[in-house]
Amino acid sequence: MAEIRTMRVRRTWWDKLVLWKSAFETKIKDSQREVRGRGPTAEASREAAVAKWTELETSEQNEGEEPKT
Known about the structure:
Blueprint: E1 3-9, H1 13-17, E2 23-29, E3 34-39, H2 42-63
Antiparallel strand pairs: 1-2, 2-3
């Protein structure tokens, strides 16, 4: 089971440059993997993390398959 944690974090210079009023980071982790997503809102950071998590799962599933010819 994956753990999801969202927290408000300090803005980086890039966050300030793109005019984020605040910055949030969401971390999704289980016993084997961990991904992080950032965004100007808690929802945006969560969506970014979920997208990375889904991409990671998809790539891991494709590694086990034989190449298509």
